[in-house]
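Run log // design_07
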């Protein structure tokens, strides 16, 4: 071992011997807090009033569903009635949140959008894309489902209504979001953990 490293270890060892157990315990607690802070902060996004919210902590005992939408995405808009129906159907077991990833969308614009589509769901702005990065969302509409343990059990499309942008089936043949919610409520894995969505890309996602 190089002499400089030996000297460092020697000095550090003797310094450590002079530190009381209480200070060692305090240092350990501080290191633990520093290690978990980025995780906690990474789950927060401001509501329309500017208050930071962590949707995974707001409703303990319920499955959490994050729905990424844009006010100018026609596919997001088309799903509005279905999403509201699902939020009512599963409301006793699952908490639904609308997440707006476009940092240029103002709270006033989002409130107008909610009124236009008669949304009753809580809305979050995510200009720093913390929730997108946590879930892997890349476009709107996409959804992310977290079980009661707050594990991400599904992310991706709502269903397969759209084969590609501008081309929709008469009716969806698969229902990934509904399947994921029902599975998460039962404490089992959903049939699919991910499914590629069709919609509007989150253009400024980095």
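design_07 sequence
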């Amino acid at each position: 071992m190089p002499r400089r490293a030996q000297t460092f270890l020697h000095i550090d060892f003797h310094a450590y011997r002079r530190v009381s157990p209480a200070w060692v315990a305090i240092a350990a607690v501080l290191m633990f807090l520093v290690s978990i802070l980025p995780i906690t902060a990474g789950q927060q996004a401001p509501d329309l009033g500017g208050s930071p919210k962590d949707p995974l902590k707001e409703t303990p005992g319920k499955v959490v569903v994050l729905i990424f939408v844009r006010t100018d995405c026609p596919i997001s808009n088309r799903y509005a009635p279905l999403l509201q129906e699902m939020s009512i159907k599963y409301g006793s077991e699952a908490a639904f949140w609308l997440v707006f990833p476009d940092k240029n969308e103002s709270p006033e614009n989002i409130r107008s959008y909610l009124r236009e589509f008669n949304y009753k769901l809580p809305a979050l702005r995510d200009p720093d894309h913390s929730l997108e990065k946590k879930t892997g969302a890349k476009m709107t509409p996409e959804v992310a489902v977290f079980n009661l343990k707050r594990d991400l059990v599904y992310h991706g499309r709502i269903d397969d209504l759209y084969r590609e942008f501008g081309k929709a089936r008469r009716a969806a043949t698969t229902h990934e979001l509904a399947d994921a919610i029902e599975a998460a409520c039962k404490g089992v894995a959903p049939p699919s953990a991910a499914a590629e969505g069709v919609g509007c890309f989150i253009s400024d996602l980095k």
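The first helix runs from residue 3 to 18.
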